[in-house]
Amino acid sequence: MPRTFQGEPPAASGSASGATFGPVERLGSVDSTQTIAARAAAAGAPHGAVFVAEAQTAGRGRHGHAWASPPGANLYLSLVLRPPGSVAGLLPLTLAAALAVADAVAEATALRPDIRWPNDLLLAGKKCAGILIETASDAAGDIGAGAAVLGLGLNVNQAMFPPDLAPIATSLRLALGRDCDREGLLAAILRQLHRRYHQWAAGGVPALLAAFEAASSYARGRRVRVGGSQMGGQEAFTGVTAGLDTHGLLRVARDGGGIEVVASGDVRPAPQSPSSPTRP
Q1: Three-state secondary structure call for residue 275
Q2: Which of 31, 42, 46, 83 has its CA 20 to 30 A from that of 251?
Q3: Residue 146 CB burial class (10 angstroms; 0-12, 13-18, ≥19)
């Protein structure tokens, strides 16, 4: 029997170690927590407001990809953010959020997910989580000027996946062989997101980018294929990743020469070329 959430994680506090996001609104089945949080942001919801659902009927990920959201097994949440200054150029915050969720999973389960640039968490090469940040300029609807909505889908206790997803998706339960405490995991995620958000807001982008490179096998020395409809007609290409630039964009040493700076696109493993170096 799926378990519902009980209680609430700790409220925000002045302690650096215990500070977290909140208040938390618990929801049953919704179309998408992103839609709920966007409407709340447009209506004036405060910075840090969190919306957690038991199920989603129209969950979505980056570039409009659908996110499978069965009831009572996983974590589906969205968070209202009101960053200082402009909400443009939030890629480093996306990377910070990926780091935060990876840290929270490690804290709660001792599993250490890999991070596929910019926003996917992987276990044994399969996706277990995705992160999405949207602003008023995105297609999600009216979020309201000066606000952003951070969404997370994390496969926690899902035991099976549809045949089309089984080769590429996994959950913490499948990796551990047992169920995980979703409440403890939620509390850890909100604490770690709070910590990384304030690191980003305080100008700690260089340290965040260095931490991302250290946590991601995709950031440097990984042979990849970059493609996807979001590339604006540009042909897919292969090469070896060469780290992040100062904005968090992925640098790829293309086969045949030259460095491509990737702003968007699906980054996936590519077979190793006998002639390509393992490190650019």
Answers
A1: coil
A2: 83
A3: middle
Q: Which region, left, alpha or beta, applies to residue 181 given φ > 0 means left and ψ of -120 to 50 means alpha?
A: beta
Are residues 219 and 242 in contact, defined by beta-carbon separation less than 8 angstroms? no
Identify whether the C-beta of residue 160 lies closer than 8 Å to the C-beta of residue 150. no
Longest CA–CA separation in the chain, Å: 56
SS3 sequence, 27-85?
A: EEEECCHHHHHHHHHHCCCCCCCEEEEEEECCCECHHHCECCCCCCCCEEEEEEECCCC
d(CA 185, CA 23): 17
Q: Letter for the amino acid at 68?
A: A
Other Cβ atoms closer than 10 A to 178: 9
| Closest by CA position to 95, among listed 219, 268, 184, 269 | 219
pTM, two decimal places: 0.87
> Quick one: which of 244, 214, 271 has its CA closest to 99?
214
Q: Note the pLDDT tens digit of each residue in 52-83.
A: 999 988 765 544 445 556 788 999 999 999 99
What tens digit of pLDDT does each residue of 220-271 get? 999 999 986 555 567 899 999 999 999 999 999 999 899 999 998 899 999 8
Beta bridge partners of 259: 253
Structure tokens at 112: 């250490």
Task: Please check whether residue 275 is in contact with residue 231, taking contact to mean a CB–CB distance below 8 angstroms.
Answer: no
249 close to 263: Cβ distance less than 8 angstroms? yes
